[in-house]
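Protocol step 4 of 6: record predicted structures for both targets in the notebook before any analysis. Target 1:
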Amino acid sequence: MAITADHISSTLATYTDAHPEEKHKLAVVLDLLDAGADVTSRKEFRGHATAGAILVNGEGKALFIHHVALDRWLTPGGHLEPDDVNLMGAALRELAEETGISVGIAPVRSEPVHIDVHPIPANESKGEPAHQHFDFRYLFRIDSEGDVTLQAEEVSGFAWRDCDTITDERLRQRVSSALR
């Protein structure tokens, strides 16, 4: 069963109840849902949902991957798939696909640690115009560093880095607070 608009709406409601100062930033997602847009489809170019995983090891370091298409160091994540049943599961699937890590992982919370709305540049090779991602980011722990096997088509490297190197200030603060 695919992720539903109701699941996304209820996740947003729980998140904005905890973080009311972000409701205005997430209004674009709520407006699209209210208009009946399928924000689970990567073909919805007004914006669509993605899922991300911040994985922190026992030493307090977060896993970063080097994303080939964007040529940037990011935390694992990506588009939703029709077989995903919820956003957290999609984040775990993306983590496993991009890094090969799939065991010994525990969620820190059941709700996203952060939801980010950010622009994605046009990609002519994929026939995609510029659009927005609504990235539902979940925080996970792992005791070890796990055995990393990179998905070579999308990822060209990985590194365990201090959480204070997370460039998004709000995400960095949320991760730090959640891990205390």
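Target 2:
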Amino acid sequence: MQESELPIYGQGDATYKAAGELDGITALVDRFYERMDTLPEAKALREMHPADLTVARRKLTYFLSGWMGGPKLFKEHYGPIVIPDAHKHFPVDMDSKNAWLKCMEQALIDLDYPESFRHYLIEKLAIPAESIRLMAEHEAKYKA
């Protein structure tokens, strides 16, 4: 593939296609949660989730599908979502935010995605991750 033919992530469905469409995203989410179960730094993050991750896996897969430019499955099945509001009940701090990103980064590496795609995706996922952390911090401040 020529340099000029490389997909431009974030435009149209280029990110969705680079992820392997729904099958690739499903594999990524499965590996992400496997990493959450095994990485020591993700222990507190994993404890925020129920033992059965079936619904969490489906919701993250559906969310990522639409977020990456593919079918808007989350909205179709669950309605609209505001990411920080949907997570404000979790006690997300800097460590758990970083653990989440580490699990995703490791899943991307494990599944042998190209380095350019891995960097792009982690950079973009860090934005909502930080919004979630800030919302949790705000919620904790006003609950105290």
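Step 5 preliminary note on target 2. Residues 115-143 form the longest helix (29 residues). The chain is about 70% helix and 0% strand.
Proceed to step 6 after PI sign-off.
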